[in-house]
Write a structure and sequence with these properties.
This protein is of the alpha+beta class. It folds into 2 domains: about 170 residues, Jelly Rolls (Sandwich), CATH 2.60.120.10; about 110 residues, Arc Repressor Mutant, subunit A. Helix content is about 45%, strand content about 20%. Helix 3 packs antiparallel against helix 4, helix 6 crosses helix 7 and helix 8 packs across helix 10. The radius of gyration is 30 Å and the shape is elongated. About 20% of the residues are buried.
Length: about 300
């Protein structure tokens, strides 16, 4: 069971591009007590309130806002507000707070325009009240579940869930569609896909000059890229691919050794035998027998 003191001491930081978010959890996430009255106050942080049950009123500036279940509201920094309950149906709500700062650190692949849009959307927030049409409250409940279960990777999951909550809220408060260029794969990333697709054709007589033509590079450059990506050579990668497929095929006793050799691109059964023996330390027949023994 979560403890309120533990929650308040958790250091949850999330980076989105150059923006670093600091998230504050409090006892409202574990208390089951109904809210009676929250006197006028403000915070230096943004507040996100999730109305779970009951009814009440929010006093903010000269506004009086009715609060109902399955609604979410955001209050910007330094905005004074107070909350009153409905005596007949007291409020139950969760809330989290966050601040953000701009740093010099960033992931090179993250679009700068998205960072600008997030900052712009946050700067516009003084008070926003929304119906929870995107199941944002369920995302918060998932955060609580992760904190309670503490399974491997739960910090990363909590970061992801907070980002989803924030982005869903910002999109709901901003009706203007922002169009910007999505990050594109680097040339090396694109080449790795082409290389792997090329080697999928292992049944045929593949040559490095064919791959070089496909990538519009020299054979020497291709070998350098394969070494960088796979820590091997063109020739060895082709052999490795064929041998791994051959090991799977040899599990099927209905296939002859000759058929397996042909299936993985060897016109000569003898050449296949030599390559397989060098790769595994066993002949194709010995490997098949070994696999069959393990099945018994």
């Amino acid at each position: 069971m979560l403890d309120s003191e533990v929650l308040e001491n958790l250091d949850i930081k999330i980076r989105i591009g150059t923006l670093l978010f600091d998230v504050f959890l409090d006892s409202s996430l574990v208390k089951t007590d109904k809210i009676i009255y929250a006197q006028k106050h403000n915070h230096s942080s943004y507040e996100i309130h999730f109305i779970v049950a009951g009814k009440g009123k929010l006093m903010i500036g000269n506004k009086e806002v009715d609060l109902f279940p399955n609604n979410v509201f955001i209050i910007g920094p330094e905005i004074y507000h107070s909350i009153w309950q409905d005596d007949q149906n007291p409020l139950l709500k969760y809330n989290i707070r966050f601040t953000y700062s701009t740093t010099r650190d960033s992931d090179s692949f993250f679009p700068e325009n998205e960072v600008s849009w997030i900052k712009e959307a946050l700067s516009d927030i003084r008070f926003v009240y929304l119906s929870d049409t995107q199941n944002i409250i369920s995302l918060l409940q998932n955060i609580l579940s992760e904190l309670d279960n503490k399974e491997i990777g739960y910090y990363a999951k909590i970061q992801s869930l907070f980002i989803q909550i924030l982005m869903n809220l910002l999109c709901a408060t901003n009706n203007h569609k922002k169009i910007y260029i999505f990050p594109q794969k680097s040339r090396d990333d694109q080449r790795s896909v082409l290389i792997e697709t090329f080697f999928d054709d292992y049944r045929n007589d593949l040559r490095i000059d064919q791959l070089a033509d496909l990538l519009n590079l020299s054979s020497k450059q291709v070998n350098r890229i394969i070494k960088k990506l796979y820590n091997t050579t063109f020739k060895q990668k082709l052999i490795d691919m064929r041998m791994e497929v051959a090991k799977d095929l040899l599990r099927d006793n209905a296939l002859t050794i000759e058929s397996v050799a042909e299936e993985v691109g060897y016109a000569s059964q003898n050449n296949f035998y030599v390559a397989f023996k060098q790769h595994t330390g066993l002949s194709p027949s010995e490997y098949r027998e070994k696999v069959c023994d393990k099945r018994k």
